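Write out the bound-state structure for zinc ion.
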Amino acid sequence: MSCEHPLDIPPTHIILNGCGCALIRVSSDYCVYSYEKLVDHFHKHGSMTFEEARDWVNFNILDISIPNWPYIALDDEDAEETEE
Ligand SMILES: [Zn+2]
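---
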């Protein structure tokens, strides 16, 4: 099961294939995803428990450091930006 991304993401940006539902916004250099939404996505669509989904996201997405790799926002950061 995969969730589509909006079509207006620049081709230079790396996206997490099939994780469009977790995309929060697109900055000039990279895509920004919500950590909790990614975990939800893999829990729902990947037949994983929440714990397995967190491990998956930690190892396969958070730990990657290559240029323009998506930024993963933790919940606190989301809250700061939506309100205030
Ligand atoms: Zn999804």
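---
The mean pLDDT is 89.
The longest strand covers residues 23-26.
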